[in-house]
Write a structure and sequence with these properties.
alpha/beta, D-Maltodextrin-Binding Protein, domain 2, 5-stranded mixed sheet, disordered C terminus, Prephenate dehydratase TdaC
Amino acid sequence: MDVQFETNSDVGYIPDAETFAWVKQVHTLGPTGTNCERAALSWALRRCQNASVKLHRTMEQAADSVACQDGAVLVGVVAYPHLHSIIYAHIQKMKLLDVFIMNTDNMVLASRTGAEPLTCATHPAPEKLLPTKVERRFVSSNVVAARDCAEGHADGCITTLCAAEKFGLPILRKFGPVPMGFTIHGPLEKRACQDCTQHA
């Protein structure tokens, strides 16, 4: 059977550094210290050096913010369990603009006391790093997982090495950095932001 591939006639299909000069804000999942923030800062440094990075409590909130303004993009991550829902929820206003691969921070299992945990705080994305017998307490990011563990809401957590060290958590296991795909979503029509401050 012959397979025919559709060629993309859009000259902007393969993005270059000049393509994203219109971007003034890069939105993604917070709080400070997430892999998404690291990816957003890295991408902005290469693609739109005058843009600021805005952090949100959830990826959905970040997407909603981008969808209602000009001059902004969303940094998503392919491991995010509901990335498909974000894409289709905003299909009338946003599209995929760019994709890149970057290592995450070293992913670790940490605990508050140094003992093997019975309950662990974790974002849904890396929860498979936990043994099946460990009870999960799902949170909005790896950084929140470390914070909740430190505050006693869980015995342990799956988090990043950076976050574990920030909250003084003993490391039980290191899984290493994970090569991860990050996605850039933005408006169907690229327009410079008229007043980004009102959406900050």
